[in-house]
What we know:
The strands form 4 sheets. Strands 2, 4, 5, 8, 9 and 10 form a 6-stranded mixed β-sheet that branches. The chain contains 2 helices and 20 strands. The chain is mainly beta.
Amino acid sequence: xxxxxxxxxxxxxxxxxxxxxxxxxxxxxxxxxxxxxxxxxxxxxxxxxxxxxxxxxxxxxxxxxxxxxxxxxxxxxxxxxxxxxxxxxxxxxxxxxxxxxxxxxxxxxxxxxxxxxxxxxxxxxxxxxxxxxxxxxxxxxxxxxxxxxxxxxxxxxxxxxxxxxxxxxxxxxxxxxxxxxxxxxxxxxxxxxxxxxxxxxxxxxxxxxxxxxxxxxxxxxxxxxxxxxxxxxxxxxxxxxxxxxxxxxxxxxxxxxxxxxxxxxx
Length: 266
């Protein structure tokens, strides 16, 4: 006669209880976990650069959510359609400690040219995918003579980029702890206005703007103005050279930290 080894009743009961508990917990976990949307609608977070010159063929990167299946990108300026061509699309560089739904994880690279005689100050950009069309996102437009592209190295007074009295600097704070310095020359009593356009256009930049005199003394500094972007407005205390220093208030930087710095000196 064959002998059969019997499992003690207490062990059988314990094993069954563990299995049942595991199944119940798995079921509850599945119910609590929010399902991932299968068909996310496209959403634009930011366009890099934040602004371009009219009359110049420009390549821009549209960053956002669910843009990698883009079938069409549409641009209008004052109601006029602007020809635009998709050059590439796919996943975007993921930003450390930045939630994809806020900073985007997909992108579309496009090429466009705004007519040089256009009077529009901005273009409205939308992206269409099989799951819908995004809300319009603004791309700032400038006269070619009114837009200055940032040139590195410009991280110190000695290497500061000299600009004219009134211009908009197109740049970015990259890498982390980057500092961009712009040099201007003014006279006592002249009114200077320096304003950052970044966060309001989707940039991750938390700008910190400081105006120094030629001796390196801080004349004015600003983190947030009426918006999350920095702004300095004052009358210059004396004739001479001044430096505008821009950095991220938290020492961050990268591809998601572009800016426009509008400078007026009257």
